[in-house]
């Protein structure tokens, strides 16, 4: 369940080079791929070996810049841009319909969360890693609290809509995977308040407080998905390490990041970007079928660490209730038929 050569200092590029044979031929979908973000770095690294990398984002102009930069870095890369705004359930449904119509199978989905990256690659994987940190309490057009909409509710709906494609891509050798990028932040708060999943609490809202709720929801979703799918799709969550990206350019977020210890008065306290290389950005080790024996597992620094899940984020009753609440919000039941 872990690789002896990998650690907190391992980069995405280093891990990808080890598992080149397992990445080749795979079709990957990645959200949040703006240049200088971790989704872009994930796309750049995987594009060196994958059959197809679908890059997504809500801004088509920035998406085009990312495509051009990746193709410049890897001239033979097969990049396909897809406009996707996880803040809008209507947009999620539209994008999911487009992906479902692709002739290629969906092997890997990568949903990029600010500050972190997940990468669990096997034959069929959907990885949730999209996130929008907001300093102030905000509601989307669907009247959903913005952080939860992008980090949990939108990805939940997208997974539900792409489940048939993931199931169809499964083989006797591989089980489709859904990976949620959580973080150690899941344990820093009291867990998710099931009464405020939809709209949050504007009176108690803080950016990092809500961030911790979203991360708790991600861990719970991985556990519940694994249980409900009964072996058809396995869910996983992870903490991939903190990586300071273009989020620090947002003035309204600096104070919250400083309070959380991710920023000092003069910038990042430890980790800094160097060109397009992310020193602590990595792909966890489980590219291998061995991961299938531990559905719902949580990873830290490329090592399985389910014992580090906070009790409030591993409680099966809470996981079931969150799943039901989220189904109610999107207005659809999630099954695996």
Automatic annotation (TrEMBL):
Keyword Oxidoreductase: yes
GO MF annotation terms: oxidoreductase activity
InterPro entries the UniProt entry points to: NAD(P)-bd_dom_sf (IPR036291), SDR_fam (IPR002347)
Keyword RNA-binding attributed: no
Stored SUPFAM superfamilies: NAD(P)-binding Rossmann-fold domains
Family: Belongs to the short-chain dehydrogenases/reductases (SDR) family.
Protein name: NAD(P)-binding protein
């Amino acid at each position: 369940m872990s690789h002896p050569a990998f650690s907190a200092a391992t980069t995405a590029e280093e891990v990808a080079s080890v598992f080149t044979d397992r990445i080749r031929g795979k079709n990957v979908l990645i959200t949040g791929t703006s240049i200088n973000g971790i989704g872009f770095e994930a796309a750049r690294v995987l594009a060196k070996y994958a059959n197809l990398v679908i890059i997504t984002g809500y801004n088509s102009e920035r998406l085009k810049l990312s495509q051009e930069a990746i193709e410049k870095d890897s001239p033979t890369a097969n990049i396909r841009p897809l406009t996707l705004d996880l803040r809008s359930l209507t947009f999620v449904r539209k994008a999911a319909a487009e992906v479902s119509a692709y002739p290629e199978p969906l092997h890997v989905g990568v949903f990029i969360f600010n500050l972190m990256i997940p990468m669990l690659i096997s034959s069929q994987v959907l990885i949730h890693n999209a996130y929008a940190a907001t300093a102030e309490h905000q509601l989307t057009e669907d009247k959903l609290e913005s952080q939860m909409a992008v980090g949990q509710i939108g990805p939940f709906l997208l997974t539900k809509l792409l489940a048939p494609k993931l199931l169809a891509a499964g083989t006797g050798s591989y089980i489709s995977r859904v990976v949620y990028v959580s973080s150690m932040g899941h344990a820093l708060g009291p867990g998710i308040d099931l009464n405020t999943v939809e709209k949050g609490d504007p009176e108690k809202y803080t950016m990092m407080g809500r961030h911790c709720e979203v991360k708790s929801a991600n861990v719970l979703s991985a556990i519940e998905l694994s249980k409900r799918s009964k072996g058809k799709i396995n869910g996983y969550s992870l903490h991939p390490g903190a990586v300071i990206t273009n989020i620090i350019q947002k003035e309204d977020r600096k104070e919250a990041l400083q309070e959380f210890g991710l920023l000092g008065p003069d910038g990042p306290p430890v980790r800094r970007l160097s060109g397009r290389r992310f020193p602590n950005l990595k792909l966890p080790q489980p590219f291998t079928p061995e991961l299938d024996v531990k559905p719902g597992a949580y990873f830290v620094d490329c090592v399985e660490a389910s014992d580090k899940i906070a009790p409030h984020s591993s409680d099966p009753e809470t996981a079931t209730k969150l799943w039901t609440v989220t189904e109610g919000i999107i207005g659809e039941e999630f099954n695996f038929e």
